[in-house]
Amino acid sequence: MAMIVVVTEAVPPRLRGRLAVWLLEVRAGVYIGDVSKKIREMIWYQIGELAEDGNVVMAWATNTESGFDFQTYGENRRIPIDMDGLRLVSFLPID
User: Fold this and answer.
1) What is the pLDDT of residues 34-46, one digit of tens each?
2) What does the alpha-carbon distance between residue 53 and residue 55 come to, in Å, rounded to a whole number?
């Protein structure tokens, strides 16, 4: 089991309801929980199926140099990059 955090923006209510089944919504669009890898992967699958034009980031505790990993869905100025095995965030320029 590992702690996960999911932050959503502009996603359909159906996805928010689905996330609330597995995680606690501590603020609008911010979900936390302690789930297995299998459940985390199932949640990510649901995000891919239901997020539509919204965007989502999921972060979880893991045994890495930083102590966590993350993945993103949808368009956002913040994009994940890999720098010598360390996951960082880069900002796209403002249009």
Assistant:
1) 999 999 999 999 9
2) 7
Q: What is the mean pLDDT of the chain?
A: 93
Structure tokens at 55: 């965007």
Whole-angstrom Cα distance, residue 89 to residue 41?
22
Q: Which amino acid is at 79?
A: I
- Element (H or E) spanning 68, and its range? strand 68-73
Sign of CA dihedral 45, 56, 88, 39: negative
Regarding pTM above 0.70, the answer is yes
Domains and CATH numbers, the chain: 2-91 (3.30.70.240)
CB-CB neighbours of 11 under 10 Å = 22
